[in-house]
Amino acid sequence: MAAILRRREIPIALTAFFALYMMIVYHFDYPWFSENSQLTKDIQDFARILGIMALGLGYIAIVRLHGGYIARRVKHPQHWFWSLWLLIVLTITTIVGLPIGNFGMRSVQLQYVYNSILMPMRGAMYAVVAFYIASAAYRVFLARNKEAAVMLILASIMMLTNAPVGELLGEWVGATGSWLLTVPSMGGNRGLRICGALGSLVLAWRMITGRETGYLRGAVEGAGE
Amino acid sequence: MAGIISGRIFSGLFLLISAIIVLAMIQYAKTRGARIHLRRLAALDAIDEAVARATETGRPVLQHGGSDPSGADTIANFSIMNYIARNCARRGTEFIVAARSISGLPVIREIVSGAYEAEGKLEEYDENRIIRFGSPEQFAFASFFMDTVATEKPAFTFMAGGLSGEALTLAETTVLHGSLLISGSSGQLAVMFAASDYFLISEELFVAGAYLSGDPLQMGSLAGEDYLKMILWVLGVIGVIMVIFGSKWLLDIMKL
What we know:
The complex is a heterodimer of chains A (225) and B (256). By secondary structure, chain A is mainly alpha-helical. Chain A has three domains: 1-86, no CATH class; 98-140; 143-211, no CATH class. Chain A has eight helices and one strand, in the order ααβαααααα. The two termini of chain A are 34 Å apart. Chain B has 256 residues and is an alpha/beta fold. Chain B has two domains: 10-32 and 216-254, no CATH class; 42-206, Rossmann fold, CATH 3.40.50. Chain B has twelve helices and seven strands. In chain B, strand 6, helix 8 (189-195) and strand 7 (198-201) form a beta-alpha-beta unit. In chain B, helix 1 runs antiparallel to helix 11 (216-244). The interface between A and B is large, with 71 and 98 residues.
């Protein structure tokens, strides 16, 4: 039974069926077969439930992974103490988020965890990394080759366009920046978007026909041979 | 009104044409057994060399696990992960995945353990060493990734799969620590292009799975994509000429 469930044909067949169904109902409108039909809504609900189940699987995977670090008292790649701390925090957050007694999604306890712990930590992390972004941008925008030199010049013009000092240099700065954004940048971006959309469309067809299987457990023919 | 939805006729037609062309090219490759020649993608060709370099130097290979497992970028990243993991398993090179998505974590486990199994090296698959989970939070993950690069000092880093504002810091850290960086993105184009040694621009990332597989049938689908591109190119040129001469006929057809 387990061997049958692990067969790659099952996820490929499910992918093909649901992808084709969603493609078709996007274009047709029949009472029993449309974007607003009960079947489509049921499938969308089913997808949401599957997403939550995937999150649950991920939760189990995190517990397994960090449980392994704790069990083996590892010090590398990270000290087991931090894994223990992670599991404690994970457990507390899960408990206060469950709809039991005074707890739940709208409970004061969960709001506290979110607003008074997670949000300030998120801001602090950004503040720490923000300065590194500036120094990283400086290193990236060095004129190491012709392409980087062109990007450096254009990025400088764009910075001057958005900075108040640019206005002091003359109207040409704003006009050039605006032209760069609306003509070459827009044109290039549209071309890339069209190619990207085509690429993802063909990727979808390969997945539907079962040709693209790299995202599934199993072999990729010719890997590094 | 029941039937085909107005405003979506052209997109439906294009979808149908795309399916016919892609399937026809796959069939062509199947029946003729023809090896369809594609232009070489330096970024993908460099993967083998980069893994070999990591093996020689005794340093690990690091891969970004992607942020949104349902996004096309991340799915393409998974295909490349499969390839790199197999390559590392075969050569006995240490492989590390820096995971960001909680729901993507089981998928990564399956892909990497499957790759080791396919190479007959399942006993070398040590999940606690290979898969490192950072955080789904953008900048917390960025800090985790930078720490992993600084402590593990990978010889080769591959980054793709829904890169956003933090991508520049990740890329720059890998370069600072002497890692060869190959990345792919359909969003963070300019900075990643500037920061990476090799870069997969937009659709090049989506074709990676097919390209790396070396499977003629998958190559057929890529040839189909090129034909679709030609159709769009011709439509674009005709549309521009028609608009210049004051006709919106093609535009009106596309809005059907």
